[in-house]
Amino acid sequence: MKKTSHLLSTVLSISLCACVPLFVTPAMTTHAEPAYAKWGQMAMKETKKKYPKADIVDYKHVGRKELSPSAAQETFRLWLKEGKQRYEVIVRITFETRTEKVLSVRFQQEERTMNPIRQPAVPYPS
Questions:
Q1: The pLDDT of residue 116 is above 70
Q2: Rounded to the nearest 5°, which phi and psi values hold at 2?
Q3: Would you say the pTM of this structure is higher than 0.85?
Q4: Cα–Cα dist 43/19, whole Å
Q5: How many domains does the chain have?
Q6: pLDDT category, 13, cuts 50, 70, 90?
Q7: Can you name the residues that pair with 66 across neighbouring β-strands?
Q8: What span, in angstroms and rounded, lies between the C-alpha atoms of 98 and 122?
Q9: Is the confidence at residue 117, as pLDDT, over 80?
Q10: Residue 90 lies in a domain
Q11: Domain for residue 12, yes or no?
Q12: Contact 46, 52 (CB under 8 A)
């Protein structure tokens, strides 16, 4: 009986040790926030102010452009939906690179459907 309980105890200990990395690993993994995250949040906040009735469906960081040694511009493309209308808005945030002081926030609205359905060049045979 004593051997059986010792064997069971050993098996349980090994099983628990094998499971611990499964529980610890995800908690230990950290993801660094991208450098543009602050500007992406600002782009969404400012877009929501300009288009208060629209829902932001998605957004994408287009890129960063160095305008001068002291200024840069982050560009984002946001997809908005307002009722049945869907459109894209390009947001450009210009700022001082040293202080991160915002110099301008510009919007460019593009009328487009979010997922246009392309018609075939040649009709399908009936």
A1: no
A2: -65, -40
A3: no
A4: 43
A5: 1
A6: low
A7: 72
A8: 55
A9: no
A10: yes
A11: no
A12: no
| CB of 92 closer than 8 Å to CB of 75 | yes
Q: Is 97 a member of any domain?
A: yes
- Among the ranges given (28-32, 54-58, 83-87, 106-110), the one the predictor scored with the smallest mean pLDDT: 28-32
Q: Of the given ranges (15-19, 30-34, 80-84), which has the lowest mean pLDDT?
A: 15-19
- SS3 sequence of the chain: CHHHHHHHHHHHHHHHHHHHHHHHHHHHCCCCCCCCHHHHHHHHHHHHHHCCCCEEEEEEEEEEEEEECCEEEEEEEEEEEECCEEEEEEEEEEEECCCCCEEEEEEEEEECCCCCCCCCCCCCCC
Expressed as residue numbers, the domain containing 93 is 37-111
Quick one: tokens of 8?
């069971």
**Would you say residue 4 has pLDDT above 70?**
no
Q: Is residue 93 part of a domain?
A: yes
Phi-psi region of 83 (alpha: psi -120 to 50; beta: other; left: phi over 0): left
pLDDT at 83 over 80: yes
> What Å distances lie between residue 13 and 3, 7, 9, 18, 65, CA to CA?
15, 10, 6, 9, 56
The CATH number of the domain holding residue 63 is: 3.10.450.390
